[in-house]
């Protein structure tokens, strides 16, 4: 009787798997067809068109920060079709080319999207000055020390500095003694989006160093990051552990894997080829299919003013929600390379960065939503906590990848204030332990 009661579930699972296989096989065919279409149009409209990764089988140089997922996202259908395409189109591969003087034909060229070209090439940074202390409530020396504190906030893949400026920064009364900096990562928001950049992990770190840390003469700061930003924050902390006072990681992506296959594991876990839920299906399409993803960006990003106008028309609001606006503020080139070279490629480097943070005794707080469908909660609760045994773990019930921040801004700001207040004594204790030869 039990056997008969389980067959509907097994049949439904088999039907779902068969449907998913059919859909992704169709996308394999569509991606190869679009490869030919874009090659033709790029050749007509661009002086020096960049070759796609369909025609490059291995990295151009020995760079561990260039992810192998750029070249090894293969399937039987795709391999067979690409073999025919390579035979039919034996053209030269442009691996190195001068950056174009104007946006690509498939990118938006409106004023807000290309404003960075007339600037100094620095990342866009939003700063929130600390509130001035009330006179007579504390000594001038203490007030100066507190107001010299700084914190850098790093956003995730579908966000920009608005994620922090529109939420946590509005709780300035809680974080009144700290200067807050939110940065648009390279290729996102209002920051530069160079077409000749591979958007490796070190490219993002170096951009933050020159545009924010050096430009503002920061000698010490707290780090706060969400999702993909956690990978960049850990790389920055591992490079400059003496600058970092504490690290807060919100919904950090981390998967156990040997260093050689970490990139492939990250791709398969974060962009698994499934039809449901829709967010996972969208991640799979944008991560596995270079030309389908470019088509989505052509429709959404190039025409973002149309979609923003429709949003204001339908919602009857004067301002576009920052979550809607941020989705379109990048190019396909920047988004594609950041996805693979930071999220997937950075997975190979994450263990050594965690080891450096642990060795430096930097206080770490992990915040994760229990109902997170994008990055499973075991990333923090088990895997990452094992790498950082001294880290403080906070699991937020009934919260997902976004609502772990959105909707609980006040509570998150209060948690930050308390953690920052205690992190100084923790760091001093860890330093004394290292000097004395302790653990």
TrEMBL record:
- PANTHER family cross-referenced by the UniProt entry: HYDROLASE, LYSOPHOSPHOLIPASE BODYGUARD 4-RELATED
Protein name, as recorded: AB hydrolase-1 domain-containing protein
Gene3D superfamilies, from UniProt? alpha/beta hydrolase
Q: Where is the AB hydrolase-1 domain?
A: 152-405
Q: Pfam families from the xrefs?
A: Abhydrolase_1 (PF00561)
Q: Which domain of life is it from?
A: Eukaryota
Classification lineage: Eukaryota, Viridiplantae, Streptophyta, Embryophyta, Tracheophyta
User: Which SUPFAM superfamilies did the record assign?
Assistant: alpha/beta-Hydrolases (SSF53474)
Query: Mind telling me which InterPro entries this protein's record contains?
Result: AB_hydrolase_1, AB_hydrolase_fold
């Amino acid at each position: 009787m039990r056997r008969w009661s389980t067959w509907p579930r097994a049949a439904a699972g088999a039907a779902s798997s068969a449907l998913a296989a059919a859909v992704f096989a169709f996308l394999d065919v569509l991606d190869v067809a679009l490869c030919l279409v874009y090659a033709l149009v790029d050749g007509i409209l661009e002086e020096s068109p960049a070759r796609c990764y369909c025609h490059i089988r291995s990295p151009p140089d020995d760079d561990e920060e260039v992810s192998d997922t750029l070249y090894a996202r293969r399937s039987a259908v795709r391999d067979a079709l690409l073999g025919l395409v390579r035979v039919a189109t034996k053209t030269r591969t442009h691996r190195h080319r001068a950056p174009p003087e104007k946006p690509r034909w498939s990118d938006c060229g409106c004023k807000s999207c290309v404003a960075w070209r007339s600037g100094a090439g620095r990342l866009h940074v939003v700063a929130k000055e600390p509130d001035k202390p009330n006179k007579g409530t504390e000594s001038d020396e203490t007030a100066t020390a507190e107001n010299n504190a700084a914190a850098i906030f790093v956003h995730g893949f579908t966000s920009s500095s608005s994620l922090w400026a529109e939420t946590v920064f509005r709780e300035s009364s809680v974080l009144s003694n700290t200067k807050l900096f939110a940065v648009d990562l390279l290729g996102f928001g209002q920051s530069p989006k160079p077409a000749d950049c591979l958007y490796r992990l070190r490219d993002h770190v170096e951009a933050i160093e020159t545009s924010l840390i050096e430009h503002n003469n920061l000698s010490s700061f707290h780090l706060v990051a969400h999702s993909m930003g956690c990978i960049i924050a850990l790389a920055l902390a591992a490079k400059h552990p003496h600058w970092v006072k504490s690290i807060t990681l919100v919904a950090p992506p981390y998967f156990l894997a040997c260093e050689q296959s970490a990139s492939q594991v990250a791709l398969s876990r974060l962009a698994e080829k499934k039809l449901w839920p829709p967010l996972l299906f969208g991640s799979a399409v944008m991560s596995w299919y270079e030309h389908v993803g470019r088509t989505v960006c052509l429709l959404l990003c190039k025409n973002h003013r149309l979609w923003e106008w429709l949003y204001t028309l339908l919602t009857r609001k004067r301002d576009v929600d920052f979550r809607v606006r941020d989705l379109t503020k990048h190019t396909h080139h920047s988004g594609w390379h950041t996805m693979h070279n930071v999220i997937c490629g950075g997975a190979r480097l994450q263990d050594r960065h965690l080891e450096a943070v642990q060795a430096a005794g930097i206080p770490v707080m992990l915040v994760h939503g229990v109902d997170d469908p994008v990055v499973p909660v075991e990333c923090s609760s088990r895997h990452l906590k094992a790498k950082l045994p001294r880290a403080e773990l906070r699991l937020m019930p009934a919260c997902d990848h976004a609502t772990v921040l959105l909707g609980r801004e006040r509570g998150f700001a209060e948690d930050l204030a308390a953690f920052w207040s205690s992190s100084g004594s923790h760091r001093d204790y860890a330093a004394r332990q290292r000097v004395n030869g302790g653990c």
